[in-house]
Amino acid sequence: FMAKLGTGLSRSSSRLTTGLAVFGRRKLDDDTLEELEDLLISSDLGAKVAMRVAGNLAKERFDKEITEDEIRLALAEEITDVMRPREKVVDFSDGPRPRIVMFVGVNGSGKTTTIGKIASKLKEQGAKALLVAGDTFRAAAIEQLTVWGERADIPVMSKPIGSDAAGLVYEAIEKAKAEDLDLVLIDTAGRLQNKSELMSELEKIVRVTRKLDPDAPHDVILVLDATVGQNALSQVEAFRNTAGVTGLVMTKLDGTAKGGVLVAIAEAHDLPIHFIGIGEKAEDLRPFSAEAFSKALVG
Ligand code: GDP
């Protein structure tokens, strides 16, 4: 499946909002319930949530008239209930020192950008951070992180392309300890061409951080691109198994994709959702809010 990761188009987009509009006012019979379930599943919300929404509506209103607005309201409530336990704003300037935060995810998901945004915020808060260009495979990734570092006036540690990422991470943590820094934010590779190589590299980085701090990495944040639709669910599974993901960020929610798959992820995985990305600039990062998310999704 890895070959397919990241290639999906914007699927959950506004399909749900326009799909709901079709319901207008009608009798809540088996056909209507089935149509609603199909719509929710095709919007990536997952079969469980779809069946629960339909089941709850049927319990209260079966064979009675229902309006599109009532369906929207019931759906928004259900989604908020699923997402609420996943709301967890994280304060990176708190906790162990140095706090070691690793960012994982497939290429193009928005890892480097998210690190840049978080670093800019931390700088404003006065935290002393070090950025590590751990995607040593792509010159563009190293350059991009360097630009973010320069912009936020935060040091970036990098090595020439092709260098051993785990070695770089080791040196970075040693430096952070020696200089008594608050945080180490580590970018990692996300190439899909070779899944086992990528995963063993991530495992190696995790092992190296543990050598210097048995509790590290303190955070492993999986960055997901909202526009890949259903593929995001398999990305969570793949990265959770190898890298021990502790939290999620979903990017590109500023476009047509509304991230319906995040509902299926929240249903299946007990993982906090820390932030959402809503653009390419430093300020385009928001703490995840269950209510705001479900409102945007349902329309
Ligand atoms: P990486 O390969 O995972 O490090 O991904 P990048 O950080 O390089 O991001 C890939 C592309 O997505 C870049 O062009 C970013 O500017 C863009 N991007 C990242 N986050 C967002 C977001 O929240 N919204 C939008 N519209 N673009 C984003």
TrEMBL record:
It is an enzyme of class 3 (hydrolase). It is a peripheral membrane protein. Its EC number is 3.6.5.4. It catalyses: GTP + H2O = GDP + phosphate + H(+). Its main location: membrane. GTP binds at residues 105-112, 187-191, 251-254. One of its GO terms (biological process) is SRP-dependent cotranslational protein targeting to membrane. Residues 272-285 form the SRP54-type proteins GTP-binding domain. The keyword Acyltransferase does not apply. GO terms for molecular function: GTP binding; GTPase activity; signal recognition particle binding. Coiled coil: none annotated. The keyword Cytoplasm applies. Keywords: Cell membrane, Cytoplasm, GTP-binding, Hydrolase, Membrane, Nucleotide-binding, Receptor. GO terms for cellular component: cytoplasm; plasma membrane. It is found in: Cell inner membrane; Cell membrane; Cytoplasm. Belongs to the GTP-binding SRP family. FtsY subfamily. Part of the signal recognition particle protein translocation system, which is composed of SRP and FtsY. SRP is a ribonucleoprotein composed of Ffh and a 4.5S RNA molecule. Involved in targeting and insertion of nascent membrane proteins into the cytoplasmic membrane. Acts as a receptor for the complex formed by the signal recognition particle (SRP) and the ribosome-nascent chain (RNC). Interaction with SRP-RNC leads to the transfer of the RNC complex to the Sec translocase for insertion into the membrane, the hydrolysis of GTP by both Ffh and FtsY, and the dissociation of the SRP-FtsY complex into the individual components. This is Signal recognition particle receptor FtsY. It comes from Hyphomonas beringensis. The chain holds residues 161 to 459 of 461 of the full protein.
